[in-house]
Write a structure and sequence with these properties.
There is one protein chain. The protein is of the alpha/beta class. The protein has two domains: 187 residues, NAD(P)-binding Rossmann-like Domain (Rossmann fold), CATH 3.40.50; 109 residues, Orthogonal Bundle (6-phosphogluconate dehydrogenase C-terminal fold), CATH 1.10.3660.10. Helix content is 49%, strand content 14%. It contains eleven helices and ten strands. Strand 1, helix 1 and strand 2 form a beta-alpha-beta unit.
């Protein structure tokens, strides 16, 4: 990688940068734009995307300073490009950045916010290595913040405050670019953690992707319970709402997540099925002691976890 045109990225503060491009200004991208301004970023925030109507909405919400659908215009002279699109699109979009930049372009650091990493990061690195590009480096990122709501209308400047953000370098990751991406997320209030893409997918697949799947299956199961006297959905209360809230997330987004992290999901599903069958046996044998022990263990786990994050 050329060292003549690349600044000492590790020493740069985010407030020193002149241009940050946000590719996809929805909930996460919009919140990043708002957080950058809220925390004192003085440079230009560029909104890049395919839908000019959505980009203009982001402009109206002050999530960005200017918008464009043209890639060359959107990334020109940018210090960082943050790709905030569904995970399935990230490698293709990074490839478009590689194809667009040319010699003389200042070094661009590209990162993303996707909730799967292994396939994504390695595909992007293959793109960069195959073109031997001197003007771009990529660092995988995943801020653990969000909502079942979508769109820039749900964005807020404090979304990333005290949120975990996983950074996923590999042996090929440029160290200065890694530091700059860490600086970015810490600038908007996140707490950064570093791990491999594979470790990320295992941890997040279990802690985030599996709960979403279970919430979706629960919603479908309750909806299917219909008898002449009424439908189960008509009698749901806070328990159902609390347990299924995340199932309201965008289906196309989550389909891509499940497909990209399918190996971890398959293993997690096997574990859940085993535990459900074990509980089924406890019910059949009327083993009240073991049923209560299982519930007590779960209660202790949840209460301890809520206490650790300051929830009641």
């Amino acid at each position: 990688m050329s060292t003549e045109r690349k600044p000492e990225l590790a020493t740069l503060e985010i407030s020193q940068l002149t241009r940050i491009t946000i590719w996809g200004v929805g909930l996460i991208g919009g919140s990043l734009g708002l957080a950058l301004k809220e925390n004192g970023f003085q440079g230009e925030r560029i909104g890049l995307g395919r839908n000019i109507g959505r980009l203009e909405t982001a402009l109206q919400h002050d999530a960005v300073d200017s918008v464009t659908t043209a890639i060359d215009e959107g990334i020109r002279n940018s210090d960082i490009v943050v790709v905030c699109t569904p995970v399935t699109l990230v490698p293709t979009l990074v490839k478009q950045v590689i194809d667009t930049i040319g010699s003389g372009q200042k070094h661009i650091v590209v990162t993303d916010v996707g909730s799967t990493k292994s396939a994504l990061v390695h595909t992007v690195q293959e793109h960069i290595q195959s073109t031997n590009s001197q003007w771009i480096s990529f660092v995988g990122g995943h801020p653990m913040a969000g909502s079942h709501e979508t769109g820039v209308g749900a964005a807020r400047a404090n979304l990333f405050e005290d949120a975990k953000c996983l950074i996923t370098p590999t042996d090929e990751t440029d160290k200065d670019s890694l530091q700059l991406v860490k600086n970015l997320w810490e600038f908007v209030g996140a707490i950064t953690y570093q791990c491999t893409p594979e470790v990320h997918d295992l941890l997040v697949g279990t802690a985030s992707h599996l709960p979403h799947l279970i919430a979706s299956i629960l919603a479908n199961t309750v909806a299917e319970m219909k008898i002449p006297e009424g439908n189960a959905l008509e009698f749901t209360a806070t328990g159902f709402h609390d347990s299924t809230r995340i199932a309201a997330g965008a289906p196309e987004l989550w389909t891509g997540i499940f497909m990209q992290n399918r190996d971890v999901m398959l293993s997690a599903i096997d574990s859940i099925v085993e535990k459900m069958n074990r509980f089924k046996t406890l019910l059949k044998t009327k083993d009240r002691t073991e049923i209560e022990r299982l519930l007590v263990d779960a209660q202790e786990i949840v209460l301890k976890q809520r206490k650790s994050i300051g929830e009641k």
